[in-house]
Amino acid sequence: MSDAKKVLVAEDSSVIINLTRNVLSFENFSMTAVKNGKQVLDLLEKEDFDLILMDINMPVMDGIVCTKAVRNLSDPVKSKIPIIAITGNYKNFTLDDFKKAGLDDYIQKPLDYDLLLSTVKKHIYK
After folding, report:
1. What order do you get walking across the sheet with 30-34 strand by strand?
2. For the chain, what are the domain ranges?
3. What's the first-to-final CA gap in the chain, in angstroms?
4. Helix (H, G, I), strand (E, B) or coil at 51
5. Mean pLDDT, consecutive 10-residue segments, the chain of 126 residues?
6. CATH topology of domain 6-124
7. What angle do CA 77, 79, 84 make, to 5 degrees?
8. Which of 20, 34, 95, 124 has the fewest CB atoms within 10 Å, i.e. the most exposed one?
């Protein structure tokens, strides 16, 4: 069996992090969590991930700014990692807005964990 797929979760809510970890562990995904976009960029310098779940509204660096920074990385693999927004849609973004920012998909909060899992699998195994 292949190594566990690695998911990076950028989310400032500990409750959502813990619930997401429980859901992803059912499919044997390995999950690392950070609290803001700057930590995402710092971690991507050192580690590889198969997918990023990106909260949009975070302190220090929000998910849109972070996604644009990931898309501009010089590493051709890391710059194309699938990124899924998780958001309460607090600024009324559309899917088109997310696509323009470089996001591959989005999931609305409150999270539907069946949808979360199916969306993660859709992007990791495509």
Report:
1. 30-34, 6-10, 51-55, 83-87, 105-108
2. 6-124
3. 18
4. strand
5. 84 93 93 97 96 93 95 96 86 79 90 93 92
6. Rossmann fold (3.40.50)
7. 110
8. 95
